[in-house]
Structure formats: structure tokens, C-alpha cells
Amino acid sequence: MPQRTSPSARNRSGRMLAAAMVCAALTLGGCGDLGRFQTASSPGLTPLKPNRPAAQTPATEREHERILSSYGGAYDDPRLEALISKTVDRLVAASERPDLTYKVTILNSGAVNAFALPTGQLYVTRGLIALASDTSELSSVLAHEMAHVLARHAAIREDQAKQATVVTRVVADMGNDPDMNALALAKSKLTMASFSRAQEFEADGIGVGIASRAKFDPFGAARFLTAMERNAALKAGRAPSDPRSLDFLSSHPATPERVQNAQANARQYSSPESVERDRDSYLSAIDNLVYGEDPSEGFVRGRRFLHPKLGFTFQVPEGYVLENTAQAVVGVRDGGSQAVRFDVVRVPAEQTLGDYLNSGWMENVDRASTQDVSINGFPSATATASGDQWQFRIYALRFGSDVYRFIFAAKTKTAETDRNFRDTVNSFRRLTLAEIQAARPLRIKIATVQPGETVETMATRMQGVDRPLDRFRVLNGLDARSTLKPRERVKIVVD
Fold first, then answer.
1. Of the candidates 432, 408, 398, which has an alpha carbon nearest to the alpha carbon of residue 312?
2. In this structure, what are the phi and psi dihedrals at residue 385, rounded to the nearest 5 degrees?
3. Rounded to an integer, what distance in angstroms lies between the CA atom of residue 445 and that of residue 491?
4. 343, 358, 333: which is closest to 412 by C-alpha?
5. How far, rounded to the nearest angstrom, does the alpha carbon of residue 32 sit from its chain's CA centroid?
6. Are 221 and 207 in contact (CB under 8 A)?
7. Residue 419 contacts by C-beta under 8 Å, 6 or more apart in sequence?
8. Is 325 a residue whose pLDDT tops 80?
9. Cβ atoms of residues 55 and 101 within 8 Å
10. How far is the C-alpha of 301 from the C-alpha of 442, rounded, in Å?
11. Residue pLDDT, tens place only, 39-79
């Protein structure tokens, strides 16, 4: 994945940090941009070539670059580019405005998302592409976004985004707390970015009509909305306020009513000619697609976090679930009684780590608890802090030119929580050269079902993912009653 800026973080207010940890412990996200965990910069990948050139202005170019930065850059895959270009050409020809032009960019993000700019720039993440089961489902998403452009919803949303910018500037003028400003920006953008219920229903109707006239199966929209709901259920309680993790459902709610509406629209347009799903071509195009996180930004494997680019790793104890976000690595223990946050901070060279822990970025730090320690040879300092309902253990660790921060939270301080915290921070170490060279992303592979194989046996071939059986079903559009046929092609995730 194209890297963002070099590791950096601002000092955080204690009140917001405590709130972030509590929120992480309970929900593993939803607390806004409260930190940064970023890696060194590197050139981006080549964006998808447009089917036709969209009108560009300095403002749209800036917005395009901002989107690339927020979503990990563009994802370069010639087979996917060819499939999407062909699909968009068919949809444009079948639309009410075949004279309009569109540019499609595949975003290098595991999130399930798609959106459009008023200029006709369309964006779709590789996470969404991985979730779709055939070209008709992908066409439903592209047609839906084209509909927002055709109906000028995207232009209305852009005006609202400008209002959000004004709000943010006012907030910035009122105070100099960067975290409060970032939180205000995130909230205003999320509020302003969402389409109204009426706009979504209108785009659904227009999009299904376009897809049907392009001879795609009009029921693709309803199937994909259902797939998104099931995928969101797998992520329940694990949806941080992270631009990479905000999915299609964040701005395109897939309520049961909306699914029913999509089905009703499809029945209206359905005909013997508009039934093409194009599953085989689609599966061939997505074979070897990167799935989930890209290791160049750090990634989670089970209970371990590895960052090959920066050269370190650590591991959380049994019972924890880890997630890598754009802001931090966060982990929560089953039941939500313990949580950990790992990020990178800027500490002046002349400031000791102990002084940093007591510098006021977190409230109620017990100065008497501050100690200088060594963690696997790395200079470190630790201290404790307390809140109304949570107890904290904090560490600052110097690794090369960077300072990393572990923040542990527990509802009740016990010998077990202390042991879990120590085990986690003591697991921090350098990656070996062999580990760095072996780091690679998970990928979608297309497998052929053999006689005697079942949903359950195919799911055992899934690697590097949690809940493999459930994930296999979601990725392949299967419910609990579905069975597999010999020679059927399915998606699996491999390391």
C-alpha cells in the first residue's frame, strides 16, 4: 500500500485519550480521529485509466489526491481495470446521459466503499470488489454512483462539504487543541457526506434501471446490499472512525427497507435479456486480488501486529482482538474489560521519556509511579494513571528515531491485567530479515470445488482471517443452507 507521511503524532489531551481508550474497550472504534499511526512515504501506485477523460480542475485534482491519501493510494491491476472499464462503458451507453464522462479509480483499501464526485470521478475500493460475487453486483454499485452524479446528488453533497469546511475553520479559530479540531472535522464531514434517504432511494431506482438496460442482472443490487449487511455483521463492534475502515454502509445505509426497494425495482426492470451476472469473468479478474490490509502499512495476523517497513512486531495475550487503523493499533479483550492502544508520538530529543509521560497529555498520571525501564534493549518509561471507571498503564518506548506509546486500560486492576500489559509490551521486538521478507498480504484466490467438498471443508482452506466459515459464506454469497456443486468456482483467502 502506498505509504502516508512519516510516523508522527500530536500530544493528546488526557480527557480525549481516556475517552478513546474506554470507547476502544467497549466498541473497538467510533471515537473519531484521536491519534496517528502512519508510516514512511513512498510513491503511489498507478490509478485506473478512465474509460473517458473526466473534466479536471485544480480543485478536483486536490480532492482526488486527498482521497488517494485517505484510502492508501490507487490499486493497480490491469485485469480489474479492463473489467471495470468495459462495465462502465456499457453502463454509460445505457444511461440517460451517454454524453457524460467518468473516471474510475480503484482504491487500495480493504474497506467496502464506493463514492462519486460531481465531475464524474468514481471511486471503488478493492475491499468492495472482493466482496462482490459477479459483474452484475459490481455494475449495481457503479450504476448507483453514476446515478448520484446524474441526479446531482454529488454536487449537493459537495456544497455541504464546503459548509463542513467553514464549520471546521470556525472551530479552529475558537481553540488550538488539534484533537478537538480533528474530531470536529470528522464529525462535520460524516454528517455532511451522507446522502439523504430520499436520495439513496432515487439513486437505487436510477441505478437498477441503468444496469438492467445494460443487460446486467437487475437483482445484483439487492444481492450486494445483502452481502454488505452480512459483511458489516462480521465487523460488528469493530468499526473505527478511520477513513480506511468507513464502509459503503456509512454513507449508503442498507436497511431492510432499502433491500426490499431494490428487489421491487429489479422486478420492474427484469426481462429475459437482462439477466447477465458474468460470474466466471469476474472471478477470473479478481483472482490474486489483495485482501484486507496491505503489509506495507503494518498488518495484523491473529494476535500479532507486524510492521515490515518499520521493522517491529508485538503480540497481545489470548482473548484479545487486534485491529490496525489509520490512527493506531487497538486491541480489546473479550468482554471489553481490557483494551490496548499502540501509536507513535513526537517527543523532543531533549525530553526524557519519563518527563514525556508526565507532560500533561494524559490526566491523573501518578508521578510517583514513573519508572525508567528497558524493554528488549529499548529505552522506555512507564507510569500509571486513573480515571473514573478505568485504570491505565502507559509506556513510552524509543525505537530508532521514533517514540512509540502503549496505553493499556482495564476496568479493574488485577494481577492478571498487570501480567497481560507486561506480556504485551515485553513482546515488542525487531523483526528479523526473514520475517520482513516473508511478510506478504492476504489474497483472494479462486478455487474449484471438487466432488465431496462442502462449504465447511472449503472454509478450512481460508488463511489469516477470523471466523473463516462465516467469512467464506459472506465472500461467496452463501447462507447457512447453501451447498456447493462440483466444479463450482469460489473465493477463498490465502496467505
1. 432
2. -150, 160
3. 6
4. 333
5. 14
6. yes
7. none
8. no
9. yes
10. 10
11. 333 333 333 443 444 556 787 788 889 888 888 889 999 99
Mention every residue, 6+ apart, whose C-beta is less than 8 A from residue 301: 464
- Among residues 193, 203, 280, 195, which one has the least CA distance to residue 241? 193
CB 191 within 8 A of CB 167: no
Residue-wise pLDDT for 219-250, tens only, equals: 999 999 999 888 888 876 443 344 444 444 44
* Alpha-carbon gap, residue 139 to 88, rounded angstroms: 8
pLDDT average, residue stretch 94-98: 90
Q: What is the mean pLDDT of the chain?
A: 79
Record the pTM: 0.69
The span from the CA of 25 to the CA of 17, in Å, is: 12
CB 48 within 8 A of CB 122: no
DSSP type of residue 11:
P
Between CA 312 and CA 436 the distance in angstroms is 9
DSSP string for 199-261: HHHHHHHHHHHHHHHTTB-TTHHHHHHHHHHHHHHHTTT---S-TTT--HHHHS---HHHHHH
First to last CA, the chain: 16
Neighbours of 126 (CB within 10 A): 27
Domains defined along the chain, listed by start: 40-278 (no CATH), 298-437 (3.40.1000.10), 441-494 (3.10.350)
DSSP 308-375: TTTTEEEEPPTTEEEEE-SS-EEEEETTSSEEEEEEEE---TTS-HHHHHTSSSSTTEEEEEEEEEEE
